[in-house]
Amino acid sequence: MSSPHMTAVVMLLIHDSGFGVGQKACRREESVTEMASSRHFRTIFISDVHLGSKAAQTDLLLDFLRHNEADTIILVGDIVDGWRLKRSWHWPQGCNDVVQKLLRKARKGCRIIYIPGNHDEFLRDFPGTHFGGIEVAERIVHEAADGKRYLVLHGDEFDVVVRNARLLAYLGDWAYDAAIALNVVLAAVRRRLGMPYWSFSAWAKLQVKQAVNFIGEFQNILAEEARKSDVDGVICGHIHHAVMEEINGIQYINTGDWVESCTAVGECHDGTMEMIIWHKPAAVTTMQPLTPDIIEDMKAA
Ligand SMILES: [Mn+2]
User: Fold this and answer.
1) 66 within some domain
2) Is 288 left (phi over 0), alpha (psi -120 to 50) or beta?
3) Ligand 1 mean position to 194 CA, how many Å?
4) I need a surface site. Which of 44, 142, 182, 247 has the fewest CB within 10 A?
């Protein structure tokens, strides 16, 4: 026996996701009786949460994770801010809640892949390992439902190229490759010496007038890396600048951050990639006022 309300199905579009231009809204049919406020993606990409820094928007992220499910969640680096934690331990309940929520999803069968960034590079010593059901990988190629292949990496290894783009273009390919290798070595040495990693976003913000150029340069370099890897697109984080756009025939996707923009990228079941901006008026009221400490954290991100 089936009553009309039992079989009623509504088209739910939770949260406006009208980010950028030309992106198809991904509407999912959901039964009214269950999961009325939750969406299900094939894959969710999140980066730059900076757990351990006061600027991390854990309330909003937790809310996002409650309302969005996925077969696979890919953490694209700087989820935990190891550098911030080294200076002073700041781990409120909200950070635990986010970690617990992710581990619970893993236990329930969600595949979680953690790609370390420069702020959680301590995990780079453990590629291929699992902890609590979470896999660690340096970079991966993700194949979407529509067959498109995406290189997924945090992106910090290209900082040195962004800073020295003109010089490296003049010196050629070998210098470009050597610079990337040197960047990795220098980061490891600085880590051993207890020196903080050089921060792209802080640096770009200081060079206000040129910041747009630097972001454009970063995007071009990442798109070029994807082209070299013979894939259709690249999904990265690091520069806290959420965007989806085509660069020289390569789909460039930056997942943004959970410090300021509160953005994630969702792959729908047909392979469509969607930028999600998570703003909830109810959660906004719980956000902390901007203190000098928080502003410092945001700069360091
Ligand atoms: Mn980073």
Assistant:
1) yes
2) beta
3) 17
4) 182
